[in-house]
């Protein structure tokens, strides 16, 4: 970005949607979740565990949307969206998605699965901001096993080194499942990334379980961002909409 270019401030949100159900899958709450996501007024939304389709649920719930969950959440607010299908099963599939008020120039879902039944992906999108600035956004959902997470973090660093220009704004957000707090050092050393809440408050924000957060599983990492400021979200209604609490931040590029 040149010195004459006006700074661009964007608001982002990341949330594990838990496939549109409350904790323990007791209630289908996708409509309430859509209202909560809208109220944050984010320009870019990073979604994990979002359903592309599910034949059994669509027949069981009368208020099941006729389109995919990510299209339903985007509605008329976010004009562009991208979906990375990760887990596929007889009834349907789910994965990561990104909703954007900026045009999505291109995107790729990189398979980050290691072994066993867990299917994971890195959804890499390139957004067109004002003055044709290209913003790289990667939505992640890493594995439950520490060995798998470390390999996936190395994959993420390799992707950044290969496909993200050194001077391009970069935002990475999602569910890292990093309860042992290893991701920050790997991403800082391997790709020069900073975590928004760590930089602002000295530690990651606890997000799981949503009602009584004990673990900092969800993160927002950035590079080539002038200012990054976490946004404090209220516990309600979020604590009843997923097993993960969301994270939000304002970024000035």
TrEMBL record:
Q: Which UniProt keywords apply?
A: Endonuclease, Exonuclease, Hydrolase, Nuclease
The record, for PANTHER family, names: CALCOFLUOR WHITE HYPERSENSITIVE PROTEIN PRECURSOR, PGAP2-INTERACTING PROTEIN
Q: What is this protein called?
A: Endonuclease/exonuclease/phosphatase family metal-dependent hydrolase
- Organism of derivation: Pigmentiphaga litoralis
Q: Does the keyword Nuclease apply?
A: yes
User: For this protein, what is any one GO molecular function term?
Assistant: exonuclease activity
Kindly give the InterPro entries that the UniProt entry links to this protein.
Answer: Endo/exonu/phosph_ase_sf, Endo/exonuclease/phosphatase, GPI-anchor_lipid_remodeler
Q: What Gene Ontology cellular component terms go with this record?
A: membrane
**What domain of life is recorded for the organism?**
Bacteria
Q: Does the record carry Nuclease as a key word? A: yes
Q: Tell me, which GO biological process terms does this entry list?
A: GPI anchor biosynthetic process
User: Which Pfam families does the annotation name?
Assistant: Exo_endo_phos (PF03372)
Ranges where the Endonuclease/exonuclease/phosphatase domain occurs? 32-244
Entry's transmembrane regions? none
């Amino acid at each position: 970005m040149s010195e004459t270019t006006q700074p661009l401030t964007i608001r982002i949100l990341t949330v594990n949607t838990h496939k549109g159900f409350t904790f323990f899958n007791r209630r289908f709450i996708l409509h309430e979740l859509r209202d909560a996501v809208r109220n944050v007024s984010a320009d870019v939304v990073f979604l994990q565990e979002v359903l592309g389709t599910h034949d059994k649920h669509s027949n069981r719930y009368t208020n099941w949307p006729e389109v995919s969950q990510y299209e339903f959440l985007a509605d008329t607010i976010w004009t562009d969206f991208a979906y990375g299908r990760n887990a596929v099963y007889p009834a349907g599939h789910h994965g990561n998605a990104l909703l954007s008020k900026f045009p999505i120039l291109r995107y790729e879902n990189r398979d980050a699965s290691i072994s066993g039944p867990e299917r994971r992906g890195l959804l890499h999108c390139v957004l067109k901001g004002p003055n044709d600035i290209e913003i790289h956004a990667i939505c992640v959902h890493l594995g439950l096993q520490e060995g798998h997470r470390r390999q996936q973090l190395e994959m993420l660093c390799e992707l950044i080194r290969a496909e993200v220009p050194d001077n391009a704004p970069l935002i990475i957000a999602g569910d890292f499942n990093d309860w042992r707090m290893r991701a920050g050092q790997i991403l800082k050393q391997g790709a020069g990334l900073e975590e928004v809440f760590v930089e602002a408050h000295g530690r990651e924000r606890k997000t799981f379980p949503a009602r009584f957060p004990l673990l900092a599983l969800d993160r927002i990492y950035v590079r080539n961002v002038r200012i990054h400021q976490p946004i404090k979200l209220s516990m309600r209604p979020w604590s009843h909409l997923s097993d993960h609490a969301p994270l939000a931040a304002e970024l000035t590029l």
